Amino acid sequence: MTRRDELGEGACDYVLERGLIGLSLRPLGAALGTSDRMLLYHFGTREALIAEVLRRSTDRSVAAIEALPVQADVAAGVQTLWQAHREGTLDRCQRVYAQAAAQGLLGHDELASPVADSNASWLAALAAYLGRCGATPPRAERCARFVDAALMGLHLDVVVEPEPDLQAVVDDVAVAAQALGSPG
């Protein structure tokens, strides 16, 4: 593993714990046992480092999706996915994605391409998972887009909505996804 890889992995761990909002290179460098200048040497710019962190975070979220147990149907797959959204690696990775996407929306154009790449990788993994849970091949991608939009929105609502209210909506999403993923 190269020094750049070590720093990229360490930066990803740091960001998954603390988030992207307010990320400063000096404290990040200190936490990684290096300096802000060395981070710039290895990554070029702060935005390039964020892009690398997002790529690594996406790789971790894709691995988390690939590790989910296959369910008997799409509805059960959605419920499993929601539980994964609520805990551990996937929760933190989704928060980092949302923060990077928000920065892109707020004018950090250099993050647009990494966010789009992250989204494409995530959707492909999600479509494959839903396919393993029974979504038909021609419908799996559309089903994945629907489930992703719904669960990401609900994931953002977690801080302001009571869990039972959110779970009722997840149940509705699961039923709708089951219908969407079935042969037409």
Short synopsis of the structure:
The chain has 184 residues and is mostly helical.
Characterise the protein shown here.
By secondary structure, this protein is mainly alpha-helical. The protein is built from nine helices and no strands. The chain has helices at 3-18, 25-31, 36-43, 46-67, 74-85, 88-105, 112-132, 137-157, 163-181. Helix 5 packs antiparallel against helix 9 (163-181) and helix 8 runs antiparallel to helix 9. The N and C termini lie far apart (48 Å). The model has no long low-confidence stretch (mean pLDDT 92).
Radius of gyration: 18 Å
- Oligomerization category of the chains in this entry: single chain
Structural class: mainly alpha
CATH topology: Tetracycline Repressor, domain 2
Distance between the termini: 48 Å
CATH class categorisation? Mainly Alpha
Counting structural domains, the number is: 1
Provide mean pLDDT, rounded: 92
Question: How many individual β-strands?
Answer: 0
Proportion in helices: over 70%
**Known CATH architecture:** Orthogonal Bundle
The proportion of residues in beta strands is: under 5%
Q: Low-confidence stretches at least 5 residues in length (pLDDT < 50)?
A: none
